[in-house]
Amino acid sequence: MDTSALRAKFLGAAAAASDEAALEEVRLAALGKKGEISALMATLGKMEPEERKAAGATLNILRDEIDAALRAKKAALSDAALDARLKSEWLDVTMPARPRRMGTIHPVSQVMEELTAIFADMGFAVAEGPQVETDWYNFDALNIPPEHPARQEHDTFFMHRADGDDRPPHVLRTHTSPVQIRAMTEKGAPIRVIAPGRVYRMDMDQTHTPMFHQIEGLAIDKDISMANLKWVIEEFAKAFFEVPSVEVRFRASHFPFTEPSAEIDFRCSWVGGQLRLGEGDSWLEAGGCGMVHPKVLRAAGIDPDQYQGFAFGLGIDRLAMLKYGIPDLRAFFEGDLRWLRHYGFAALDMPDLAGGLSA
Ligand code: PHE
Questions:
Q1: Between 297 and which of 39, 275, 304, 343 could a Cys-Cys bridge form, CB atoms 3.0 to 4.6 Å apart?
Q2: Are residues 310 and 224 in contact, defined by beta-carbon separation less than 8 angstroms?
Q3: 198 CA to middle of ligand 1, Å?
Q4: DSSP tag of 223
Q5: What is the pTM of this model?
Q6: Which stretches of the chain score pLDDT less than 50?
Q7: Dist. CA 168–CA 347, nearest whole Å
Q8: What are 65-85's pLDDT values in tens digits?
Q9: What number of helices (H) and strands (E) belong to the chain?
């Protein structure tokens, strides 16, 4: 039996098939139930034994050969299809992800992070204290005795004691200064800490809310002076407002817990309602400061004959309003989502000095 013509025909057709459907047609035409090879196989039964043996062997070989060619071609076609898909559907996994907004960081939180980064760079650790304080930490230990007028000035919120408990009531802390006492009592001297946090006073208008934020600073060591204080405030202002220089003025003032005491002013100008720091004829009030009073050191268990140092307190909300041009303080705490989306910061951009604070 001469099968060379059939062989050439089907191997040629398999090689020429351009897709899997065409290849399947070739398979059916050769090896399908009604295919030519199958038809020849069906004739074997009517042959003489000798002839059948030879023809059967030839047909088996041919069938296997065509089958192998079809399989090889099928594999090649599907490899090519995969290659084409990979080319059209490729994905550059090295591309940066598309930013997805997952809420925003409140400007107060942002500014607290910025302050922490700036003061950490100057060697200040973060200290904490409770918002519900005893009157001893909030007042007495800070040299504000019960009859002192500063107690009235602070418009304090008092917490009720249980009936029959006649110890003095707890207060909502009116400033972050009690954290000075807690930090010194806990860690002793020398010490360098900042304490950002919430404070409370009974006051409400466009520039006051009953809850607001302060940052306390405290540095105690054996040879600390007002000059160190001024340098720290100047460095802070330059870093925070991201300007090359800021003129700082200390205006004589009075706080029971510092002696001498000063108000901190930054030189500034207002051009078209825009604040410019470091130039101009206006002064911007930023907070209070001074050398820690010996009585305060003693209340916190530190010997004022060996140690002295400075403390300062700045209003965080005001700093945020100034830096980010936010006009109304009350809007800070209304929780209006449109306001938060407008003034908020991207959740994953943590401020640090190397990366640019507000970048
Ligand atoms: N605690 C003061 C206030 O709330 C600010 C201050 C802090 C002043 C530290 C001097 C030293 O007004």
A1: 304
A2: yes
A3: 14
A4: S
A5: 0.72
A6: none
A7: 42
A8: 999 999 999 999 999 889 999
A9: 12, 12
